[in-house]
Every structure is written in structure tokens, then in C-alpha cells.
Design a protein that fits this description.
The structure is a single chain. By secondary structure, this protein is mostly helical. 50% of the residues lie in helices and 2% in strands. It has helices at residues 95-106, 118-123, 145-151, 153-158, 160-172, 181-208, 218-240, 265-293, 301-311, 320-337, 341-344, 372-413, 422-449, 459-471, 484-496, and strands at 49-54, 81-86. The protein has a two-stranded antiparallel ribbon with strand order 1-2. Helix 6 packs parallel to helix 8 (265-293) and helix 13 packs antiparallel against helix 14 (459-471). 45% of the residues are buried. Residues 1-92, 251-263 and 342-374 have low confidence and may be disordered.
Length: 510
């Protein structure tokens, strides 16, 4: 445990100033590296422009908003030169366009006069939440549920109660609930947890520069990062398989029917509703421990943000009733399909599984080129590490495959399959974990086909599958490589550039 340190105090947020309906002004003065803001009423996709910066030599940056300091922690070093990037959305789906516009509509979270800012939201209760602005994306605006979740990302990261009031609640409470309603809650919880992880990572990385004790939390945050990537892999797969409602609003046919060919979408959705909220709350507990041990008490902005996320988790489907209902859906699905065999034959994610392209490499000449001998040694070491990682991934895959066969046999000899039976609930829990492992592996394979350097590598998936194996109560294979340093390096790099710890490494505007 880290030595006792003086607590970092942070007073309550400033009282909100009366809202006049005019453009909000960010607390920091504008400069060449600052974000140019557009008044919420005038926001449009074409007007969303951000200035980005290129880091010091040898580092890389993606796009959107510049790196900034979290409360009480210094930002990354000032760049040697500035390069402007316009927020460009993927023309193929429009999700990033909606997300960029929504980020501008929400405004700066630190602005005390912003009705959607931290000060106003924290000062009121659920009944005081502001009304949704015009132009909030809905299911009819985007062709797929996964794209809708990406478009709503800024809202999910801002506040879970606001996300429920504006998007999740209306879809759930409709006369015929939209099929995506049950999946947006877990997606919002993962986005909120990722935002907390980004802030905690910046804190630990900043403290690690002069306090060696803070470095003990790097493996913890790397494990949280890997778990979040795994949970999002599962959630994205369920969102992609989410059926669209029919024109008359009637529910879509059950994917448990033998003629349904949706890749087991109902089983994926049930696994998301049961497993993701539980894991997200567990990871938030780990982040709270790290903040507490780093000296950030309950009055700091970071702890208050985390506490609000934990408080509102039930609005995102993390309550006992929601997870119990999802577990019952897993059992009903296994009964309808005759056991866990059906999911083994489901196809891998489609090729349109969207992975953010790799971050651009630093400009040529910014670092000294290694000599021939050094370059050859580095390549040999990299090849040896890749071979060891691939071997470890194969060994852990065989262990999970053996567990899947054992689960099939246990389900076949279990009588009744009644949810009241603790043995049946335990089998449903193991089935959800195996589905999570399947989708995690599939996401890594899709990223490898896209030649994405981090998500296509074996480091994060080894760490994620290892934690799933432990949760199943299985022993890890011998001589497993330590993947945590590489995963931490990626997480710290993203946090330094204010990029999210998700599959897309998106950079929020605020």
C-alpha cells in the first residue's frame, strides 16, 4: 500500500451563473492551441473545428481536441510546432459527425455557466436535469445500433443521468421498447468508466514521475483497460447484431428460432446485460481504490465524478433487477437452443467491425535512426516476443475451449434448468464469460486484419483473456508473458493525448 500522503483537496464546483442563452466562454483564454467553440444554438457539423498539437519529437497524436490537463495534474509538454486538424467524420456512417456536433452542443464540462456542465448538473437533482437540445441523434438517424452508440458517446461520457433522461429512458419507456434500449445502458456505463479511467491514468502517470510508490498502480490500470476493451468488444458485437424494429413497431422475431440468422444476437445482448454492468462496477471500484491511495479524497473532482457514476449505475442497467432479468434470458436462450453449442457456430464479427486507424507516425527525422546492428537486434527481439505471445494465446485458447466443452457436458446433465437452481445460475454465468472471451478474440482478429498496431496485437487480449480465465476459476497456463507493461504504455499514451480507452481511441472535445 502506498505511504500516507496529504490529501489533495478540491472545493465544490462554483455556483452556476444565470444562463442567458448566449455562447459560453471557456475558463481558459483562447490561444493558437485552444479549442474554438461554437455557440450551441449555431453548432453544425461543418463548424466543429478543433486545433490539435503534435507532441514532442518521438511521440504521436491522433485527432480532434488537444491534450489538456486534468484537475490538478499537468498536461503533456508543450509541442514544438502546431498542426491544425479539422474534425473529419467517417463518410461511411456519419456517427462521428453526430458525435462531434453533440460534443459542441454539450459545451465545456468545466464552464460554470454551461447548463450541461459539471457545476449545474452536480448542483441539481434528477428532476432538475436540463431538456435535451434539438438535433440529439436517435435510432432513426443512423442505420445501425452500434453507430447510434458511438454518436451518443459524448453524452454517455458527460453524465449517466443525463444520458438516461435524454436517450435511454425514452427508448425503454416507449409503448414498444426499441431493441437497442437495453444495450445503450451498458454502452453508456462503459463510456463513463472509460472517462474516469482516462483521468485516473493521467494522475498516476503524473505522480509516477516523482513518486515511485505511484507506479504500483500501473498494472491495476492496465488490467482495467484490458477489461474495458473486452467489455466493449462484446457490447459492440451485440449492438451490430441488434435487429431493427419492424415498420409497424412490432418486436423483431426471436433469434432463438432455428430460422433466425443473426449471429446469436439475443444471446449477445443477454450476456451484455448480465455481465458488462457487473464488470464495469467492479472496475470502478478498482479506480476508486487507486484514487484513494493516490491521495484524492471524496471532495476532489475526480472522486465526485466517479461517485456520481456509481450512484447512477442503475440508470444504465446495472441494478440487481436488470442483471437478474438478463441472466434469465441467458438460461431461456440455452434452453431454446439445447445448450451452449449454438454460440460456438456463430460467425465472427463482420468485416465492417470499425477499428480506429493507427495513430500517425512522427514526422521523418524527429528521432535519430538506429544503426543496422541495433535495428536487426530490435527486429529479432520483436519477432521472439510476438512468437511467445502467439504461443501463449494459443495455450489460453485451448484452456477456454476445454472449459466450453465442460460447460456443454454440465448443461446436458443438469435437470430442469430452472433459474432458481444455483447450479443453473452458475452455468449461465460461465456461459456469459465464455461469450465475452469469444467476442474479445474476434475483436482482436478484426483489428489484426485491419493492421491496427495495438488492438491487432496479442498483449491486451492476453491480459483480458487471462482475467476471464481467472474469473472462471481456472488456472492460467504456465509461462504466460507479462502483457501489462505494453498495455500500460498504450493507456498512458492515450491519456497524454486525452484519447479514450476504448476500441476507437476517440478524443473527446472537452
Amino acid at each position: 500500500m502506498a505511504p500516507t500522503r496529504p490529501h489533495r483537496q478540491a472545493g465544490p464546483p462554483a455556483a452556476p451563473a444565470p444562463h442567458s442563452g448566449t455562447q459560453h466562454t471557456a475558463p481558459a483564454p483562447a490561444s493558437d492551441g485552444a479549442v474554438r467553440r461554437t455557440a450551441p444554438a449555431e453548432a453544425s457539423v461543418g463548424a466543429v473545428r478543433h486545433a490539435s498539437s503534435v507532441q514532442a519529437p518521438g511521440s504521436v497524436v491522433q485527432h480532434e481536441a488537444p491534450a489538456r490537463a486534468s484537475d490538478g495534474v499537468a498536461a503533456a509538454p508543450a509541442p514544438d510546432g502546431a498542426v491544425r486538424h479539422v474534425v473529419s467524420a467517417e463518410a461511411s456512417d456519419g456517427a462521428a459527425q453526430y458525435a462531434a456536433r453533440l460534443a459542441v452542443l454539450l459545451g465545456d464540462v468545466r464552464d460554470p455557466a454551461n447548463p450541461y456542465g459539471r457545476a449545474v448538473l452536480w448542483a441539481g437533482g434528477y428532476e432538475d436535469l436540463p431538456a435535451a437540445p434539438a438535433g440529439l441523434p436517435g435510432p432513426g438517424d443512423l442505420p445501425g445500433a452500434d453507430r447510434l452508440a458511438r454518436a451518443l458517446g459524448p453524452l454517455f461520457r458527460r453524465d449517466l443521468a443525463l444520458a438516461h433522461a435524454w436517450s435511454i429512458g425514452p427508448l425503454t419507456g416507449a409503448p414498444v421498447p426499441h431493441p437497442v434500449a437495453d444495450l445503450l445502458g451498458p454502452a453508456a456505463l462503459l463510456a463513463a468508466a472509460g472517462a474516469v479511467l482516462r483521468g485516473v491514468t493521467r494522475i498516476v502517470e503524473g505522480l509516477s514521475r516523482y513518486e515511485a510508490a505511484a507506479r504500483q498502480w500501473r498494472p491495476v490500470l492496465a488490467a482495467v483497460f484490458a477489461d474495458l476493451l473486452a467489455c466493449q468488444s462484446l457490447t459492440d458485437a451485440a449492438l451490430r447484431a441488434c435487429p431493427a424494429p419492424s415498420r409497424d413497431g412490432a418486436p423483431a422475431p426471436s433469434p432463438y428460432r432455428p430460422d433466425a440468422n443473426d449471429g446469436g444476437g439475443e444471446l449477445l445482448a443477454a450476456a451484455v446485460g448480465y455481465l458488462v454492468p457487473q464488470l464495469a462496477v467492479e472496475l470502478l471500484g478498482d479506480l476508486e481504490l487507486v484514487l484513494n491511495e493516490c491521495g484524492f479524497d471524496g471532495h476532489t473532482v475526480e472522486r465526485r465524478t466517479l461517485a456520481r457514476t456509481v450512484r447512477d449505475r442503475a440508470l444504465a442497467g446495472a441494478g440487481p433487477a436488470a442483471t437478474g432479468a438478463a441472466q434469465a434470458r441467458i438460461v431461456r436462450g440455452l434452453n431454446a437452443t439445447g445448450g451452449p453449442d449454438r454460440h460456438e457456430s456463430t460467425p465472427p464479427p463482420p468485416d465492417r467491425h470499425e477499428i480506429t486507424p493507427p495513430l500517425p507516425a512522427p514526422p521523418h527525422g524527429t528521432a535519430a535512426a538506429p544503426g543496422p546492428g541495433i535495428d536487426a537486434n530490435a527486429n529479432a527481439n520483436a519477432e521472439a516476443e510476438a512468437e511467445a505471445d502467439a504461443d501463449a494465446l494459443a495455450r489460453i485458447g485451448r484452456r477456454l475451449a476445454a472449459e466450453r466443452r465442460a460447460l456443454r457436458g454440465a448443461w446436458a446433465v443438469t435437470a430442469g434448468h430452472d433459474l432458481a437452481d444455483p447450479a443453473v445460475r452458475a452455468l449461465a454465468d460461465r456461459q456469459a464469460l465464455l461469450v465475452l472471451a469469444d467476442r474479445t478474440t474476434a475483436a482482436r482478429e478484426a483489428a489484426a486484419r485491419a493492421r491496427e498496431p495495438f488492438l491487432g496485437s496479442t498483449g491486451w487480449v492476453l491480459l483480458a483473456l487471462g482475467r476471464i480465465t481467472v474469473r472462471l476459476g481456472l488456472a492460467l497456463p504456465a509461462r504466460m508473458p507479462d502483457a501489462q507493461p505494453g498495455v500500460w504504455d498504450e493507456l498512458a499514451r492515450r491519456a497524454a493525448h486525452s484519447a479514450d480507452g476504448d476500441l476507437y481511441a476517440a478524443r473527446p472535445a472537452w
